[in-house]
């Protein structure tokens, strides 16, 4: 039987939302959200993924919400 998911497990997840594909279909931008237990907060950053080869890189960094 699989282990149950615990509340603290969510601290290790990256939540993805709001994908937008470029007009030429070669790339997409999305929001990645992560939890920070020490600061008791969630932070979000934009990421860019090339749809041709899957390369994924950050567009923003830091502790934005």
Describe the fold and architecture.
The protein is an all-beta fold. Helix content is 0%, strand content 48%. It has a 4-stranded antiparallel sheet with strand order 1-2-3-4, with no helix packed on it. It is flat. The termini are far apart. The relative contact order is 0.21. The mean pLDDT is 92.
Give the H and E element order.
EEEE
Strand content: over 45%
Strand order of the largest sheet: 1-2-3-4
Coarse structural class: mainly beta
How far apart lie the N and C ends?
37 Å
Overall, the morphology is flat
pLDDT below 50 for ≥5 consecutive residues: which ranges? none
Instruction: Give the tally of β-strands.
Output: 4
Gyration radius over CA: 15 Å
Q: How many distinct helices?
A: 0
The chain-level mean pLDDT equals: 92
Q: Could you give a short account of the major beta sheet?
A: 4 strands, antiparallel
**Helix-residue proportion:** under 10%
Task: Throw out a few tags for this protein.
single chain, 65 residues, mainly beta, four-stranded antiparallel beta sheet, 4 strands, 0% helix, 48% strand, flat
Structure, briefly:
By secondary structure, this protein is mainly β. Helices cover 0% and strands 48% of the residues.
Q: How are the secondary structure elements laid out?
A:
Layout lengths: L13 E8 L5 E10 L4 E10 L5 E3 L7
Antiparallel strand pairs: 1-2, 2-3, 3-4
